[in-house]
Hints:
Blueprint: H1 2-88, H2 92-98, H3 100-123
Amino acid sequence: MLGHVKFAGVVGVVAxxxxxxxxxxxxxxxxxxxxxxxxxxxxxxxAKDIEIKFxxxxxxxxxxxxxxxxxxxxxxxxxxxxxxxxxxxxDFYSLMERNPSxxxxxxxxxxxxxxNQIEELSVK
Length: 124
């Protein structure tokens, strides 16, 4: 009977060692998989960081361009306001009735000048 107990004890110890080894190898396998996942996620995070920096730079460039366009718009609006003020102070109808050739000549010159400016700006 004592032999059976010794045999059962030896089998128990061998089984415990086998289970311990199996548990150790499964933990090592899980750890390796976790390391691969961490490396993959780190690479993805670095790629996203690069993309964020690129998008931030694009946003700065777009803001700069937007500011330039807004400045140009304000400048153009000021020019339109100047012209409106100039035309508001003149009665072109009565001037045309008094001296039609004067208005026609100036209108033709101004139109030619305007189209030349538009052409020059569109070539740039």
